[in-house]
Amino acid sequence: MQKIQERTIELDGTPATGFRVIWREFKKDKIAMISLILLFVVIFGVLIWAPFIDQEKLMKISLLDEFAEPGTNGFILGADQGGSDVLGQLIIGARNSLVIAVIITLITGVSGIAIGIITGYYGGLIDNIFMRIIDFFMTLPTLMIIIVFVTLVPKYNVTSFILIMSLFLWVGTARLVRSKALSESRRDYVNASKTMGTSDFAIMFKGIMPNLSSILIVEMTLNFAGNVGIETGLSFLGFGLPPSTPSLGTLVSYASNPTVLSEKWWVWLPASILILVLMLGINYVGQALRRSADVKQRLG
Q1: For residue 246, which of 93, 152, 201, 289 is within the disulfide window of CB 3.0 to 4.6 Å?
Q2: Phi and psi of 198, rounded to 5°?
């Protein structure tokens, strides 16, 4: 019995690590916890509901239902100028924005992390070559270039939109990971692994990368929020998803019409609120994750 008590005291005194630190940070920050729960509800609600909506039927023009008010003709949140259900567009648009943001985050995250670790680990000529390429991309007006590409691509669809955005958005992650991998590659455990004959691939992706996991989680979370914002922003400007594909940015863009802005609020307001909730939620969750990665900033 005494041994069990001593073991319990020993475990309680062990510093929390990994997911225990993250969970403790969320428990200390109520706003971050509420944001996390809200994001789960919104994301899973949208992903479960969206497959039950017929997109072709949803986008079919019905002039009789033009700007139908909420609660009339079976439209819970009303209809837009084409008579399409705003609630259906909201669900499909949120699903499209979230899925696109996740795919872009994964593509740019994987490529940025791989390039950052390789350049930071090897250094020298490889680092110089990739850094000049990264510096070149950093000097480009990314949004303007994306708009030009979107305009030039003849058969423009969701896949081409994802590839165009991914082409330019991996740079920030690569630069951050490279700076961390550069200092990490000079540590004793890396030198010891090299002495023992461990392969470079194993050292980079089984030794160095796990030690950067907290920074990578924060970076990926903030990139996800940024990608949602970029996609909706481009759709708002008319350079995002094709017109036949519902998007939150397209719904908000209806507010550019003064009449719709002042008198048909149900067309643009729900999408605006949903974007606001998503951005704030991801931002608060990202802040909690960032504090978890930094001992000096932790609340717990």
Answers
A1: 93
A2: -65, 140
Let me know: does 239 contact 146? Beta carbons within 8 Å. yes
Of 173, 217, 272, nearest in space to 21 by CA: 217
**Structure-block tokens of residue 241:** 């998803």
Distances (CA, A) of 120 to 108, 114, 216, 218: 17, 10, 15, 19
* Structure confidence by residue, pLDDT tens digits, 22-81: 888 888 888 989 999 999 999 899 989 988 988 888 888 888 888 888 888 888 888 888
pTM: 0.81
64-68: list long-range contacts, CB under 8 Å, 24+ apart. 67/264, 67/267
Tell me the pLDDT of the chain averaged across its residues: 83
Length of the chain: 300
3-class DSSP assignment, residue 258: helix
- Token pair recorded at residue 275: 């974007």
